[in-house]
């Protein structure tokens, strides 16, 4: 007997409201991705000029109250503080997808979730294979497992591809699930000293934040102190503070309560917060982190070649460029085989390969994991940055080539989807 998944083609269209929502998110992420590119390029250029010492000195400037153990460098504030905002949006988006989005249907959720898992396992295995016996290099196994959605969407905007709606949704959902897996890895594998007292205390403001959100309290004078207290306690517990962002996002209701009229009464606070905070995340928090994280003094061509001679950098490049494609495409093929589902007739497996190549654009979370994996080892940290930047660039170029080849087919599909014979504002394919 066929699986229930066999009745739903892989990467089929979602609902029209979901398509509109995804399109709006991707427009915002495109702007954020462009700012991310600018910030990363500025840092990389500055760090390789005669004034590179000024850049490194700026990154090491410390600010914050020492009494709260928060006298941190600007680079650490960007990684621990600003990225918590980014992960808060990730938490909101993930909950939105699985509670009220098309992915509440397990049949639609299966492919991006399995692809994200494959896109994590394969790069990690390749990295481990390259770094076995490298002397401490294995600690960075998780670096090539992440996908940067803002960077990937920005690349799409630059190459001007008419990516089909189903593939855009697949890319976005895969990246969000990927981020959740990444923050889980950070919490479990990159926490050295865990203080259960602080971790337990963090549940108090977290529960209070969730209670206030469930009561539809929108006052930032109430929510911000609770969020800040949760963040600080998680930070003090030894768990990376970005985990607090995801947990806070999970507490926010996606739909209105039954007392307020149920789902038909309108969206919950998650959509409201997402509209308010996503621009701050994509337009400020992530670009600032990129500025402080991407600056590495390469030392010319010779320095670049020497850096890639380190197996840590090679493992990262191989993981991002090769591992991501093998993991995402391989797991997608396995999902199709075991569920007896077929790829939607509008698409080909070359389309999936192109999106999988975009999955090799690691950057933000990869750089964060690199900082945690090799904290205190400046040489290895620099090699991580070069590896991430190189792998991201190669993955982006390969994806651009494949998507350019498919560009004509994408344009035909896009025209078909926007056909509106009934002139009611909703394409016929969604009716």
Automatic annotation (TrEMBL):
Q: Encoded by which gene?
A: nhaA
Regarding the membrane, this protein is recorded as: Multi-pass membrane protein
Purpose of the protein: Na(+)/H(+) antiporter that extrudes sodium in exchange for external protons.
Output this protein's name.
Na(+)/H(+) antiporter NhaA
Q: Where in the cell is it found?
A: Cell inner membrane; Cell membrane
Show the InterPro entries listed in the entry: Na/H_antiporter_dom_sf, NhaA
User: By its UniProt entry, which Pfam families does this protein fall under?
Assistant: Na_H_antiport_1
UniProt cross-references to HAMAP family, sorted A to Z: NhaA
Q: Which UniProt keywords apply?
A: Antiport, Cell membrane, Ion transport, Membrane, Sodium, Sodium transport, Transmembrane, Transmembrane helix, Transport
Q: Which family does it belong to?
A: Belongs to the NhaA Na(+)/H(+) (TC 2.A.33) antiporter family.
Provide the reaction this enzyme catalyses: Na(+)(in) + 2 H(+)(out) = Na(+)(out) + 2 H(+)(in)
Membrane-spanning residues where?
Answer: 30-48, 68-89, 109-129, 141-163, 170-190, 196-213, 220-235, 241-259, 280-301, 313-336, 348-374, 386-403
């Amino acid at each position: 007997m066929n699986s229930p998944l066999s009745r739903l083609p892989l990467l089929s269209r979602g609902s029209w409201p979901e398509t509109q929502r995804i399109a709006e998110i991707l427009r915002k992420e495109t702007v954020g991705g462009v700012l991310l590119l600018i910030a990363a390029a500025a840092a990389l250029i500055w760090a390789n000029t005669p004034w590179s010492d000024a850049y490194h000195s700026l990154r090491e400037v410390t600010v914050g109250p020492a009494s709260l153990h928060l006298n941190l460098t600007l680079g650490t504030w960007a990684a621990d503080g600003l990225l918590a905002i980014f992960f808060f949006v990730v938490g909101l988006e993930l909950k939105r997808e699985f509670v009220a989005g098309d992915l509440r249907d397990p049949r639609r959720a299966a492919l991006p979730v399995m692809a994200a898992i494959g896109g994590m396992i394969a790069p990690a295995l390749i990295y481990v294979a390259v770094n076995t016996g490298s002397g401490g290099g294995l600690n960075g196994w998780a670096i090539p497992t992440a996908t940067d959605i803002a960077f990937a969407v920005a690349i799409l905007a630059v190459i001007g591809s008419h990516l089909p709606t189903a593939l855009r949704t697949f890319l976005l959902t895969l990246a969000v699930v990927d981020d959740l897996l990444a923050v889980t890895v950070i919490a479990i594998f990159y926490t050295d000293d865990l203080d259960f007292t602080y971790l337990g205390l963090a549940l108090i403001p977290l529960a209070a934040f969730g209670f206030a959100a469930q009561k539809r309290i929108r006052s930032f004078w109430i929510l911000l102190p609770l969020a800040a207290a949760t963040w600080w306690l998680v930070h003090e517990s030894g768990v990376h503070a970005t985990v607090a962002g995801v947990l806070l996002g999970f507490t926010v209701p996606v739909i209105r309560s039954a007392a307020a009229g149920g789902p038909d009464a309108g969206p919950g606070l998650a959509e409201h917060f997402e509209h308010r905070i996503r621009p701050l995340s994509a337009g400020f928090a992530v670009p600032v982190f990129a500025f402080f994280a991407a600056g590495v003094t390469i030392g010319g061509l010779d320095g670049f070649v020497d850096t890639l001679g380190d197996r840590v950098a090679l493992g990262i490049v191989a993981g991002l460029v090769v591992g991501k494609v093998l993991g995402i495409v391989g797991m997608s093929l396995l999902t199709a085989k075991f569920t007896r589902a077929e790829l939607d007739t509008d698409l080909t497996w070359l389309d999936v390969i192109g999106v999988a190549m975009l999955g090799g654009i690691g950057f933000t979370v990869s750089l964060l994991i690199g900082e945690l994996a090799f904290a205190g080892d400046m040489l290895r940290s620099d090699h991580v940055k070069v590896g991430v930047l190189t792998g991201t660039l190669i993955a982006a170029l390969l994806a651009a080539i494949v998507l350019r080849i498919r560009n004509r087919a994408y344009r035909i599909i896009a025209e078909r989807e926007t056909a509106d014979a009934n002139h009611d504002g909703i394409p016929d394919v969604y009716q």
